[in-house]
Amino acid sequence: MVQNGTSPAGPRCIALVGPFQSGKTTLLEAILARTGTIQRQGAVDAGTTVGDASKEARDHRMSVELTVASTTFMGDSYTFIDCPGSVEFVHDMRAVLPAIDAAVVVCEADDRKIPQLQLILRELEDLQIPRFLFLNKIDKTDKRVRDTLKLLQPASRTPLLLRQIPIWNGEIVAGFVDLALERAHVYREHAPSEVVPLEGNNLDREKQARFTMLETLADHDDALMEQLLEDIPPPRDRVFDDLAKELREGIVCPVLIGSATRTNGVLRLMKALRHEAPSVVQTAARLGVEPKGEAVAYVLKTHNTTHGGKMSIARILAGQIGDGTTLSSPEREAGRVSGVFKLLGATTEKRGPAIAGETVALGKLDHAHTGETLSSGKQAHAAIADVKPYPPVLAIAISAKERKDDVKLGQALTKLLEEDPSLTVIHNPETHEVIVWGQGEMHLRVATERLADRFSVAIDKRRPSVGYRETIRKPITQRGRHKKQSGGHGQFGDVVLDIKPLPRGSGFDFAETITGGVVPRQYISSVEEGVIDGLKHGPLGFPVVDVSVTLTDGSYHTVDSSDMAFRTAGRIGVVEALPQCQPVLLEPIHTVEIVCPSDATAKINAILSGRRGQILGFDTRAGWTGWDTVRAMMPETEIGDLIVEIRSATAGVGTFTFKFDHMAELTGKQADQIVAARRAAE
Ligand SMILES: Nc1nc2c(ncn2[C@@H]2O[C@H](COP(=O)(O)OP(=O)(O)OP(=O)(O)O)[C@@H](O)[C@H]2O)c(=O)[nH]1
Ligand SMILES: [Mg+2]
Questions:
Q1: Phi and psi (nearest 5°) for 364?
Q2: How far does the centroid of ligand 2 lie from the alpha carbon of residue 85, in Å?
Q3: Which of 131, 178, 616, 679 has the most other CB atoms within 10 Å of its CB?
Q4: Which atom number of ligand 1 is nearest to the Cα of residue 136?
Q5: Of all atoms in ligand 1, which is nearest to the CA of residue 264?
Q6: Of 315, 323, 268, which is closest to residue 11 (Cα–Cα)?
Q7: How far apart are CA 556 and CA 453, in angstroms?
Q8: Does the CB atom of residue 137 touch ligand 1 within 6 A?
Q9: Contacts of 448 (CB under 8 A, 6+ apart)
């Protein structure tokens, strides 16, 4: 296997993840500044960072997709993936995780962010990915770190292992004590910290905190436990070995502190990554990728650039990939690499072949997709991961503002979906609407902005129409007669129909009891077609369901009767009958399953009741301590923007799935409004 000459660990790939707005993009900027890749540290609020370079991210001051940036530190190369924190863009993060060496979970001392922190840590724990917690915004905290850790611990299934304690100067954190090195540092803004003597109160606090750290490490190291019990100072190397080992095994989550805006604590973080994060060899082993000479790479994300065609951002797990390498996924040939690029946010730089460990953009792999495992061998390597997007929760109907853009819109949507598998597009054949399903309001908003910004398609947005139907409550016998005498050849059809309501969910049933040929055999199917025509648009404006129509009688004319005439007669019969049958509106009802932290369950119940939901019950969520599952029946109209309320009641982490269950009668004011709106639209 090819190794980077400067370090046995080789190039690393580290994801910056964490709750919304915790400072990931700012931390990436601080890392790039501290490692000398950029000259000046930009700021998210000024729109000058390497990350969030797209117009949409800048406009909304939040990450709406991942940013990839490579840098070097002490001779080693590192690629950082800055992932969006918003739950609506979480697929970008989830698709990246399988192939990284370690994650830095950026968080802050804010209890409202704990549920989201728990979700992210859970995902990392399940994938057995080594993770650091970076307690950011230490410059504006007024909480003691020990209390913050107590607050955050329930979010992690493994112990949070404090590695640094702050040095306070009045109300402000002025520096830190490194508990492994037993050294005190004073922060300097945008410059490396300065080592100062460790003494007085800080020394006492250090002793206590260090003991707690060692005790946690000793839970998995008996020799260390003995030394602690016998009061023998453990050798420094042993402590460092344990720190690295227990991180890699995922049995502890080390906690570092700092301030991304001030570049404080960044060097310490980089050193921890350098010494402790696993190398690509270990990561490949975790994923079952054996170094056999062939190249194996995992696609973190594909992207359609405006000028350079398609780019696939890939982590090389084994072997080497250069211009001309042909890569395949287990499903298909992905293409031949044309151009290998180093990434720094939106900036790409052509480079030579990439080796195991590196994360680069590969040009022109036309058939590569996000989340795929690609390899160069004769036999494609098995997929190392299969990250399925969460089911979408919110929809809008879109159309091109100008008819001439219809084709362009279709093409743009195809590209958009390819880049973001958490979007879905459905064509409603009944209403001819194009429905875009996504993960939330902002997700859909950004998707439509991209259509305009990147693909130059102006669109109109609407709420998708609800699949209302109507039925009848009273039977009737109705004659349908079509007679036209215009010059020579006339038209004649005459039918008698028995129309009856059927039980809910039966659909449509047609029968005939014709005797004596009063309606000749060959015209009966035309009568049925005519009936179906008539049911397409009921008196309330919607398709009619749950009715049976029986052709019982009729008459014909030897010259003037025809298929067309009987079809028309059938339709006339139905259209004239339905208004007399007490038509009633039917609305779709779905079963909805909501998952939420237990302390929000009462609020969720109230939301459901407020939306005409019928609660079926709730239970603890299997495998999720502190979470509940609530099940309810709910009208489709009320599900429309349900996610918005669920999110605001659950600090963003609650979500739901739904499935059509049945159609139910809707009467009263609400029904009148729906019918009136339909009439107005027609
Ligand atoms: N005081 C203080 N503010 C910070 C720090 N780090 C980030 N911020 C601010 O927090 C806000 C969010 O910062 P971002 O870097 O965009 O956070 P993020 O985690 O990338 O946000 P998303 O990707 O949208 O989840 C910005 O206003 C930053 O200036 C810090 O260390 N101290
Ligand atoms: Mg960000």
A1: 65, 25
A2: 6
A3: 131
A4: 31
A5: 31
A6: 315
A7: 63
A8: yes
A9: 396, 398, 436, 459, 461
pLDDT, tens digit (0-9, with 9 covering 90-100), for 561-584: 999 999 999 999 999 999 999 999
Cα(191)–Cα(266) distance, integer angstroms: 10
Question: Angle CA(420)–CA(424)–CA(394) in degrees, nearest 5?
Answer: 105
- Helix, strand, coil percentages for the chain (3-state, nearest 5): 30, 30, 35
pTM for this entry: 0.92
- 340-389 residue pLDDT tens: 999 999 999 999 999 999 999 999 999 999 999 999 988 899 999 999 99
On whether the CB atoms of residues 590 and 632 are closer than 8 A, the answer is: no
Pocket test for ligand 1, best of 22, 93, 134 (most atoms within 8 A of CB): 22
Backbone phi, psi, residue 182, to 5°: 55, 55
**Lookup: tokens for 565:** 């005439």
Q: Give the integer Cα–Cα distance in Å for 45 and 618.
A: 43
216-223 CB contacts, 8 Å cutoff, 24+ apart? 216/159, 216/161, 216/252, 217/161, 217/242, 217/243, 217/246, 217/252, 219/159, 220/246, 220/249, 220/251
> Which residues contact residue 243 at a Cβ distance below 8 angstroms, ignoring those fewer than 6 apart?
163, 180, 217, 254, 276
Query: Diameter of the chain by CA atoms?
Result: 117
Cα–Cα distance measured from residue 463 to residue 397, given in angstroms and rounded to the nearest whole number: 6
